Amino acid sequence: MSKRVKVTRNFQVTVPAEIRRTLGIKQGDWLEFDTESDKIIVRKLVGDRVRTIRLGRKLTIEEIDRLIEEGLRQSARSDH
């Protein structure tokens, strides 16, 4: 399936709806971009959903430590 999108001045692109449906992409999902000669390859990463914290909710020290650890693990994975 081939779709054409325009790059904005902030270098952002919109994933076309048909591709979002085919890959099951939802808000908060992570995508991985790779290149192969003159092609860009996009993969949906499973299980790397961005964690959000509702504002105004009090967090325990244990929750903060756990969230920091999760963030560090995700960062280490994306560096490779």
- Rg (CA only): 16 Å
Provide the domain count. Answer: 1
Shape: elongated
**Number of helix segments?**
2
The biggest beta sheet is recorded as:
2 strands, antiparallel
Q: Uncertain spans, ≥5 residues at pLDDT below 50? A: none
Question: In order across it, which strands form the biggest sheet?
Answer: 1-2
The assigned structural class equals alpha+beta
- N- to C-terminal distance: 28 Å
Give the integer mean of the pLDDT values: 82
Helicity range of the residues? 25-40%
Strand residues, percent:
15-25%
The number of E-state strands comes to 2
N-to-C order of helices and strands: HEEH
Architecture overview:
The protein has 80 residues and is of the alpha+beta class. It has helices spanning 17-23, 61-78; strands at 30-36, 39-45. The protein is built from two helices and two strands. It has a two-stranded antiparallel ribbon. Strand 1 and strand 2 form a beta hairpin. It is elongated and about 45 Å long. The relative contact order is 0.11.
